[in-house]
Each structure stands twice: as C-alpha cells, then as structure tokens.
Amino acid sequence: MQTFDSKYQNFKRPARTGALLTVGRVADVPPGRGATVELTSGAELALYNVEGRFYAVENFCPHRGAPLADGNLCGASVECDWHGWRFDLNTGACLNRPDSPIEAYEVRVEDGWIKIVV
Ligand code: FES
Fold it and tell me: Which CATH superfamily is domain 6-117 in?
C-alpha cells in the first residue's frame, strides 16, 4: 500500500564502508520472508531469506521510495509492492528499468548469525 510518510520521501542510500555488521540470527528471518535492517546512520537495508540463502539490498525503491523489505519475493528477485518494479537480489539490477539499479550487499552466515558487508 502506498504511503505518504515522509520517511519514504527522504530515504538515505546506505554508504559503503566495508564493515561487517551482525544483524540477527538465521532463525529471525524464515525462508520466503523479508526483514528491514535499520543502520545507525538512519539508512535501511532489506534482508531476504530465499530458500535458506540470504540477500541484502538497499531498502527503498528508486522509483517512489517504497520499502522493498515489504515487496514480493519471486525466486532471487523482489517485486516492489507499489508499482511492480523488479530487482535482482544478486546484483541489484532493476529488471524492468535498467537505468534504475539498487545496491546489493554481500551476506555471510557464520555460526547461525547473519552478517552483512555494508
Ligand atoms: S515505488 Fe514505484 S515501483 Fe517501487
């Protein structure tokens, strides 16, 4: 559902720092689900579990800023809930608007913990 919350109109793109952030336990994100990861900078990532493999991308859609963590998973891609733009979770490429990619982040699982290289 579309919202006019100012959070979605002033979204921040996460800065690349190379830091490895521990964001939660594997059991916190069941297969087929997405979750929002809030960074201390105020930026957000969307984290997904696709059949046991984890993916992370920036959370806000470059079209109108919808939260992609709430989008619809289609294999290793996510479809934005608002207007249907689709993003490859491996690369961040926008599948129907090649000029509008998002950032994709490396995710590691170590001892049951999910870690993202931001
Ligand atoms: S906000 Fe329009 S497609 Fe995502």
Answer: Rieske [2Fe-2S] iron-sulphur domain (2.102.10.10)
* Secondary-structure breakdown of the chain: helix, strand, coil percentages, each rounded to the nearest 5: 10, 40, 55
For residue 83 and ligand 1, the question of a CB distance below 6 A is answered with yes
Taking the model in full, what pTM does it have?
0.90
Residue closest to 116 by CA, chosen among 43, 54, 69? 54
Ligand 1 binding pocket includes 108 (Cβ within 6 Å): no
Summarize pLDDT for 2-53 with one digit per residue, the tens.
555 555 555 777 889 999 999 999 999 999 999 999 998 889 999 999 999 9
Choose the residue to mutate in 70, 83, 95 for probing ligand 1, maximizing ligand atoms within 8 Å of C-beta.
83
